[in-house]
Amino acid sequence: MSFVDHNLTSLKLNGPSISADVVKDLPPEEVIFGASIGMRIVREKLLKLADTSVPVLIHGESGTGKEVVAKLLHQWSPWQGSPFVKINCPSIPTTLIESELFGYEKGAFTGAHGAKAGRVAQAHEGTLFLDEIAELDFATQSKLLQLLQDGEYYPIGGKKEKRVDVRVICATNRDLQKEIELGTFRRDLFYRINVVNVRLPALRERIIDIPLLANYLLSYYNLKFNRNSPPFSATIFRAFTQHSWAGNIRELENLTKRYVILGSEDAIWAELVSEEAQISDQKSDVVFDGSVPLRKLTRRAARDFEHKIILKALQNHKWNRKEAARSLRISYRALLYKLREAADIAAHRTAEQRAAQQIASD
Ligand SMILES: Nc1ncnc2c1ncn2[C@@H]1O[C@H](COP(=O)(O)OP(=O)(O)OP(=O)(O)O)[C@@H](O)[C@H]1O
Ligand SMILES: [Mg+2]
Description:
Elements: E1 6-12, E2 17-23, H1 29-33, H2 37-49, E3 56-59, H3 66-76, E4 84-88, H4 94-102, H5 119-122, E5 127-131, H6 138-150, E6 152-153, E7 162-163, E8 167-172, H7 176-182, H8 187-193, E9 196-199, H9 210-224, H10 234-242, H11 248-262, H12 266-282, H13 294-316, H14 321-328, H15 332-361
Parallel strand pairs: 3-8, 3-9, 4-5, 5-8
Antiparallel strand pairs: 1-2, 6-7
Helix pairs in contact: 6-8, 9-11, 10-15, 12-13, 12-15, 13-14, 14-15
């Protein structure tokens, strides 16, 4: 994670030492929440929750900031000085997840020469963050249910239950109701983790916040990479507000990082245009309703084709514009002009499509 520096703290818990993360640094709150209504609702909910220990389920598309919000909730809580322990469920093999979470006793299996505390014990009096909870297997779901019901669990090979006091936060980008219907997620566990539900809006639902986020990310990465890239241009901001942002804030962050490192907006233009080109490829069937003259249609098709060739040339030359221009046998200035033109057209067309959709739904 880019903004969260992890301080590794060692804890000794009836066995070998294990490490816990302490939340140190997050983006400022005004950047996390911005000015959109969706995020204002999230903020109000989080404020009400902060000093309670009820389980919270955060859901939202990939890259919307679920982990950032989980860490913020921990920071706002009375146990902010205690560990924030994250478990990325899909990254731990099913065969290891139980011992990773609940630990084991000495002699529990061949090779268990000593007892080992799990991540749950490590989170005692702190926060346990289960990321991508939908990926947990059924057996581990049952043990987690017991933990949530009674605050108790058994380490592997343990005869006596152990008690912990933890706030559990879960995150998912899946529809858990659907997983329940499919039989892959326990309904009783769902009710336990879903005491309070926080939905993070997608970036396209909070475009009003894009300039604030982009400016923050820009100054962050200028500082981090010791660069001095100038503010984004008004044209790129226009294109940002029209973009679909399938990867949400992470996608905006990656674009900004690339801009800061490469020192030019052109690599970003190409990417924004590339998505537009893919969309128009998918809709490449000829549609003719007589509303646009042939001359205009063919000019548009020729320009689209030209943009695709430019994009290919840029990809072939790893976004080196000078080399791409040379391979296309046009001047560098002409290439820059065409890239800006392509981005303007992409932004304009998306705006037209949105307006048409709006009219259709009215
Ligand atoms: N509100 C925010 N302000 C600034 N940066 C943010 C914000 N939310 C998220 N980020 C940044 O965007 C990236 C994605 O955030 P995060 O990992 O919290 O998302 P996520 O919803 O957990 O994604 P995934 O579902 O892919 O795990 C991170 O690098 C994070 O630092
Ligand atoms: Mg995440």
